[in-house]
Amino acid sequence: MQETEFQAWTTKAVENRVIEAAETLMLCPRAHGPADIRNSMPDTILEQHAAYGASRPRYRRTPTPGALDRMEKCWEWINALPDQAERELLYEWARIKCGKGCTLATLAKINGYTERGLRRKITHICAEISLRLNAAHVANTELASKQWAEDRTPVRLNEHKRLNHWMQENAKPAVDAELPKRRSVQRI
What we know:
Layout: H1 11-27, H2 65-79, H3 84-97, H4 104-110, H5 115-135, H6 141-151
Helix pairs in contact: 1-2, 1-3, 1-5
């Protein structure tokens, strides 16, 4: 096992982890209450071949096990804050940063801050969390995983920037000059 040196938590790393936790929470299936359960019977399908495509396919992204573990740890950090108003503010800020709910300006106005004041308050809360994590010597694996990813050779999906990448640099395409400039496909 490769040992890595201790990486201190920064305010930005805590902010990123809180936002990732909110995104992971949104990927989790929500709890269904009695109002969400309507009918357990499926729609009636009269013929077998009509069953295909009877309803629209549903695709749902699921969170990874690592993301779920990080989310639970992050919620523990937030719930360890002594002030409930700060916890609620951080939860709501992360939810809005994920694209759900109102805007940050509206959140600032609701809580009696300016937009800059809200940003300073969130930075202060995350700095408090990072100080607690560094005091407890909690390892920041985010930086170590980034360094590990930088050491690996990147896989380039679009390696070729031009259509004739397979030709040599000084090669010229062979075009018959006797053919007309504009051609069309004739249907048979």
